[in-house]
Amino acid sequence: MIILTGDDLTLEDVRQVIFENERVDASAESWKRVEKSRKKVDSIVQSGQIIYGINTGFGKLSDVKIKDRDVKELQQNLIFSHACGVGEPFTETISKTICLLRANALLKGYSGVRPLIIERLFQFINLGIVPVIPRQGSLGASGDLAPLSHLALTIIGEGEVFYKGKRMATSEAYYMEGIEPIQLEAKEGLALINGTQVMTAIGAIAYIEAEKLAYQSEIIAAMTIEALEGIIEAFDENIHRVRGYVEQIEVAKRMRRYLSGSRLITRQGEKRVQDAYSIRCIPQVHGASWQTLNYVKEKLEIEMNAATDNPLIFTEANKIISGGNFHGQPIAFAMDFLKIAMSELANISERRTERLVNPQLNDFPSFLSPNPGLQSGLMILQYSAASLVSENKTLAHPASVDSIPSSANQEDHVSMGTTAARHAYEIIQNVRTCLAIECICALQAVEYRGIDNMATVTKNFYHRARKIVPPIERDRIFSKDMKRMTEWLKQLPLFFLNEVG
């Protein structure tokens, strides 16, 4: 059970809830904060005080006073009118994460919702009711308005959900679970949709997958080094210590561990004086990507525990203040950085793949083919990797440098953070395929050197990977191998490398 407080949710907590189906609940202290915040909203409605989002219109319509009798209708109208998401829905993994992050933000006690709203989000998470949320349509400021409105629709019994493996009307899932729709009251509609939880949820899942890929890239690269009889001195501790980047030092240390005991690696001058950059500079390049991953993790964990609603209710100070915490610029930058960092892992992987299959760069049969000429071998796997690397360069163009005004120019600068996050997630899927391709090529190449000569760690990894993609004895439909290897890498637990080591 993961207990949410609104203040200390971690990416590891997210991983356990989303991928291990841990149940969630809230701390007693957070429920007290929520109740105090709600009482403040009720008192405002009763007093007739004019507060944005409680008894006014929204955006450019904030100067329009709403009559007391229409306050509830205002919230429903907000959800209906703002549910303008387009495109295919997010995966169930991402939509479930959105529910988790939205619940955690509301638990901070600055949004003024009833506990009932948060309890419904908990029901969604714990029962496996996942809102269908279109993935396009957010500007990433004023929050993720359009996609979060589709989440809010399901709370009031509208829209669609994924439930028990099917996509269905929310009302149908409610009937099956004996759940009643909730009628939103003052402030609750706005509190549900004003925030950065969509871009942050995508970013959280992207990071979890990216972290695993970064580790996998190193052991796959180690196997490539053995296949190419790489020079071990490039990973010597002294080289990396004098530059001083912690992440670079750590990558080099892991590479030495993975290659420990290998009889395939060589020494300076033994076969060549220096290796190509894609081999020699693994600690420098991968280490720089790790620097970015660490930055991204820090920003995500701040944002996951942030109050991003507007207005915010400060019960202790007796203040209700309109601001701009919904602006997604910090996450937009983080996601753009993540795009670049992960693209580079694919870039350097594809170059290593080229060195494995190009007969002008190695002493293997051309394209690792069992019968070069009659059989093309792994020639076109490198084409696919090159195509994905090129596509990543387009996706890596920063979304955060763009902005376009909305709401009659009242909302005149936006982050495009959700676009950045979506593209980061796409890039990560491409990176995984590029690494799967390098892995398939390295598995085949290292067989020419002798499996018995491999390091203990890489040999263990080799044998496990060979259960997924068997040795290539003749041309076959390699897209099937690529798919199997990609899915295997995705499913491998993060602690897998500790096992093979």
UniProtKB/TrEMBL annotation:
Contains an active site 4-methylidene-imidazol-5-one (MIO), which is formed autocatalytically by cyclization and dehydration of residues Ala-Ser-Gly. It catalyses: L-histidine = trans-urocanate + NH4(+). CDD domains: PAL-HAL. Keywords: Cytoplasm, Histidine metabolism, Lyase. One of its GO terms (molecular function) is histidine ammonia-lyase activity. There is a cross-link at residues 141-143 (5-imidazolinone (Ala-Gly)). Its EC number is 4.3.1.3. It is an enzyme of class 4 (lyase). Its main location: cytoplasm. One of its GO terms (biological process) is L-histidine catabolic process. GO terms for cellular component: cytoplasm. It is found in: Cytoplasm. It holds the Pfam family Lyase_aromatic. InterPro entries: Aromatic_Lyase (IPR001106), Fumarase/histidase_N (IPR024083), HutH (IPR005921), L-Aspartase-like (IPR008948), Phe/His_NH3-lyase_AS (IPR022313). Pathway: Amino-acid degradation; L-histidine degradation into L-glutamate; N-formimidoyl-L-glutamate from L-histidine: step 1/3. The modification 2,3-didehydroalanine (Ser) is found at residue 142. Belongs to the PAL/histidase family. This is Histidine ammonia-lyase. The lineage of its organism: Bacteria, Bacillati, Bacillota, Bacilli, Bacillales.
